[in-house]
Amino acid sequence: MKFLKKYSLIVVLITFMASCGSSDGVYFENLTDGQEVSSTVLVEMGVKGMEIEPAGEVNKGKGHHHIIIDGGYMNTGETIPADANHIHYGKGQTEATIELTPGQHTLTLQFANGLHQSYGEEWSKTITVNVKD
After folding, report:
1. Per the database record, which ranges form the DUF4399 domain (predicted)?
2. Cα–Cα–Cα angle for 83, 85, 87, rounded to 5 degrees
3. pTM here?
């Protein structure tokens, strides 16, 4: 009986640990908040709970990544502009190289639908990076 109790506890703990950090959303695969980086930064982008597809059509549960440099998330339904600080990855890219000036910068990963309309704060992740001189 003691064996079954211990075994049950182990199963519960493993299940709990596996579920931690498994919520849906976007994430940086290779960068962490506060990380020091060089001016040329490789960004690996991930998403859980949605499927990546190229821009063009709006399909439920699908979209693509955008990186917003030195800005926060875009509200749900807002169209993400295309400029030097709002970079679109409308071909479905999950990896990109960006250039940053020395100093502190925020990087916001924002997921959006096929018309570049934001899925909102729930589908964004902002980190700060420090670009060394």
Report:
1. 43-132
2. 65
3. 0.83
